[in-house]
Each structure stands twice: as structure tokens, then as C-alpha cells.
Amino acid sequence: MKIGIVCYPSYGGSGVVATELAEALAERGHEVHIISYERPFRLRSFHQNLFLHEVTAVDYPVFKFPPYDLALAGTIYEVARTKGLDLVHAHYAIPHAVSAYLAKAMLAQERNLPLVTTLHGTDITVVGQEPQLYEVVRFSLQASDGVTAVSRALAEEAAGVFGYQQPIEVIYNFVDPEIYRRQFCPARRAFYARPDEKILCHISNFREVKRIPDVLRIFALVNRQVPSRLLLIGDGPERSAAQYLAQELGVLERVHFLGKQEFVVPLLSISDLFLLPSAKESFGLAALEAMACEVPVVTTNTGGLPEVVTDGVTGIIEPVGAVEAMARRAIALLQNEEEHRRMAEAARQQALNRFREKEIVTCYENYYLGILRNT
Ligand code: GMT
């Protein structure tokens, strides 16, 4: 197939999933065209079947806001026409599905361009519910030939909020277990922690929805009972407030702010627990990557997280904001080596059983074939 993949290139789950899907499809012999405003940060390999098309937004003094959505639609149309795309797959509804729909409509005089939209979370649960965007997102779902969601919870929320009647295919996010596997890194571990200390880890874009203050509060409580270090990986609007809070909680010198890191496997490999106490999370790709590296996850019972993490088996699940309960159970787990080992192994096993790249990419291929047959 010739597939166009429209995505965000930036540090965030939807861009990661789209990029890794593009690489895997190219590896399987499909011709894949990534359309984005810059090279995706997760695109690591060269592949002869993989092509990049950077969208350049047109600026002019008359525009207060350069019309990126239109430049994107024009680029999708051009790539579809000149490269003969069989279908276009938009990751994140806003504006990708809308721009792709416009490209589809422009091409309609010549031929049909099937459009698949994958919902990733905040496009539905946050941004898409803003009054001025709600009807646009609703329209983009109706106008897509197929809609997928990264968890059952997200599919249900999308159907409910937007009154979408067609089936939404749930295709989970995935992980390559050969890349995401625990490495033996004693020297790196020794750099961050003494032998008697545990390492807790959090990776995100530091937006409000991630509840960074909860990450720090859980850590501070754990550290009182179990000497520990916290690795904070990523960057975003909540980072400087986090620094103040760490100081206020008296743990600043135990928290390592590492900023955005491209290669997280070596850091997950020295971690004993992963903290993701989000207020909302359609899937929690970072949690899956941690599990694949044998790191149990402490998280909340929101969105798709309970579909990724199994309470008491591969991690700890508590209600949003239940900082004391999360800390209490994290302490018990860190103090019980046997139970921790069991949970770490189960976490890896769950990542392999349910979210292995090979199987999930096949689900996308089959879904595309079904759409091509029916349109
Ligand atoms: O978490 C974010 O704010 C980034 C966002 C994105 O679109 O990149 O992540 C969403 O998509 C990821 C990939 O499907 C999911 O793993 C995240 O759970 C989801 N984030 C939220 O729902 C808050």
C-alpha cells in the first residue's frame, strides 16, 4: 500500500505512535509518506520506503495566525496526487483529520482518497470539547472513512461525547520489545543512586493533566520510608513549578530533572517504579514503555490506564489524587523484593502479550485493507 501518515513531530505519544507505525509499515514493504511540520523526533532510522514531507506554513503580515491547517491540506493533497496514495491516516483529530478531509474533498473530482483517523486522547477529551472546536471535531469523525482509538475508554468517550454512531476500532498503542527491554546498567545506576536507594521515574510533557505535584508528593512520602531518588524526564509548562514544590517538600536534592531525553531505555532500566498519576490518560504510552523495561507502574484509574496496567499484577492503580494510597502501596512494594520482582516480570509479560509491535501493526494493516475494500 501507499500510505500517508499525518502527525505531530513533537515530544508526545501521538507523534511517537505515528512515527513508529510508519517505520514498521515501511519495514514491511509499504511505501509510507510522513507529512508533518518537521522531522518527527522519534524517527531514528533510514528506510528506502519511508519519505518525509515537511509542511511549510505561509506567513504574511495580513495573517495574525499563519494558516497551517490549509498548508497541511495542500501538502496532503499534493502528496496524495503525485505519489498516488492509497489512503491517508491522520493521527490526532485537530487539525490533522480536518486538513486531510479537505485534501480528500479537493481530490474527489479525480478519485477517492480513503481517510483513517486515529484518536489519541486530548484531541477528544480536552481540546475537542472546546466550544469552537466541538463541531469541527465531530464533523471530522463523520467525514473519516474509519476511526480508530488507542483504548476502549477513549472509543467510548468519543462515541458518547460526539454522538458518533459508527464503530470505532480499538487498536492499542504498541512497543517494540527488542528495543524496550531492560538493560544491565550498574554504572549508570550508581551515578544516580547509592546501592541502598531506590529509583522512581516519571516521563511526560509536564502538562497539568500529568499532575506533576502528585508525582513529587508521592515521591516525598516514599522517600521518608525508603531512601530514594526521582528521575523526572521531559519538559513542559509545569516544570518550574515542580522545582519549587520539590524544594518546599525538602526533596530537591533527591530529584534529577533530566529534561527531554530521546533515549529513555537506559533510564527506565535503572528504575524501580514508574509514576504516572495523571488526571486523564487515553492510554499512557510511557507506562507501557516502562512495563516493557520491567518497571511496575503506579497510576490512576482513569481513561485507558486500567487497560494497560493491571492493579496488583503489573502495577498499582488508585483514584486520581489518592497520593497517600499510591505512596503507601509503593512503599510496601519497594520493601518486598520478591513481590517487586514478580510484578516487574509480569509487567514485561503484559507488554509482550497485549501490546507487541508486530501484532498491533498487523491490526493497522488489516484495518487499512478493510477500509480500502469498503470505500
Ligand atoms: O499526553 C499528552 O498530552 C500527549 C498526547 C499526544 O497526543 O501526544 O498523548 C495522548 O496520546 C498518547 C498516544 O496515543 C497516549 O498514550 C496518551 O495517553 C494521550 N494523552 C492523554 O490522553 C492525556
TrEMBL record:
<dbReference type="InterPro" id="IPR023881">
    <property type="entry name" value="Thiol_BshA"/>
</dbReference>
<dbReference type="InterPro" id="IPR028098">
    <property type="entry name" value="Glyco_trans_4-like_N"/>
</dbReference>
<dbReference type="GO" id="GO:0016757">
    <property type="term" value="F:glycosyltransferase activity"/>
</dbReference>
<dbReference type="Pfam" id="PF00534">
    <property type="entry name" value="Glycos_transf_1"/>
</dbReference>
<feature type="domain" description="Glycosyltransferase subfamily 4-like N-terminal">
    <location>
        <begin position="11"/>
        <end position="178"/>
    </location>
</feature>
<dbReference type="Pfam" id="PF13439">
    <property type="entry name" value="Glyco_transf_4"/>
</dbReference>
<feature type="domain" description="Glycosyl transferase family 1">
    <location>
        <begin position="193"/>
        <end position="350"/>
    </location>
</feature>
<protein>
    <submittedName>
        <fullName>N-acetyl-alpha-D-glucosaminyl L-malate synthase BshA</fullName>
    </submittedName>
</protein>
<dbReference type="InterPro" id="IPR001296">
    <property type="entry name" value="Glyco_trans_1"/>
</dbReference>
<dbReference type="GO" id="GO:0071793">
    <property type="term" value="P:bacillithiol biosynthetic process"/>
</dbReference>
